[in-house]
Amino acid sequence: MHTMMVLSFPGNPMKRFMLALSGIALALSFNVAAAAGPARARLDAFANGLHSLRGHFSQSLVDINGHPGKDSSGSVALQAPRQFRWDTQAPYKQLIVADGSRVWLYDPELEQVTVRVQGTEEAHSPLTVLTDLKQMDRDFEASEQGEHDGLAWLRLTSKAADAQFDHVDLGFDANGLARMTFRDQLGSTTDIRFSDWQRNAGLPSGTFNFVPPEGTDVIGDAPVISTQPLKD
Questions:
Q1: Which residues touch 224 (CB under 8 Å, ≥6 apart)?
Q2: What is the rounded distance in angstroms from the CA atom of residue 91 to the CA atom of residue 196?
Q3: CATH number of 13-220
Q4: How many CA atoms lie within 13 A of 10 on its CB side?
Q5: Please, what's the b/e burial string for 148-185 (b: 16 or more CB within 10 A of its CB; e: otherwise)?
Q6: pTM to 2 decimals?
Q7: Dihedral sign of CA atoms 50, 52, 58, 62 in order
Q8: DSSP 3-state of 26
Q9: Cα separation of 57 and 190, whole Å?
Q10: Which of 42, 76, 112, 175 sits at a 20 to 30 Å CA gap from 194?
Q11: In the chain, what are the domain boundaries?
């Protein structure tokens, strides 16, 4: 049986996941005054006119000692202003949905869902500013990293004193964001590869809604609130 992600502890898989999606959103909406270069040009082309995105991912993790974790794969969907869906299908099923008010983590094998209010951390992360770029140039430094592995790379470094990651590297091919690699403060490295992007695709109305299946144990705070973007 696999271990369920926990929402509240920094440095754990859920935290790494949140940082990963933050990096994705940066790739969609990055707007800082970075020096011109091939990676920035590809990012600009990818982000232009973007409102929603869906595709597939494969993810691998290596810890500080060089020990690999289990690879995983599935699908991802993002929609402005602050909704996402990360649906892991292999090697086990697990679903994370941010509906604009709450973040849900559902483990069907354990018949358990953890929920918490989608609060300040998400509200002001790069994930939530797909259509609101005013804070981007205050939050991150960007630098061109040249070309390798067939991709043009851009490195993002948080300006925050308590940043949860050392840096995020975004790799772009001619079609947009192809790969993302980041190292957290515990020294673990996560590598995510993306494929089959669909820009501004019509997403089903229930993509970012989650209702716990009957019989599922619900852990956490789930106030009865409407599903809508958070207020600044």
A1: none
A2: 20
A3: 2.50.20.10
A4: 9
A5: eeebbbbbbebeeeeebbebbbbbbeeebbbbbbbbbe
A6: 0.76
A7: positive
A8: helix
A9: 12
A10: 112
A11: 13-220
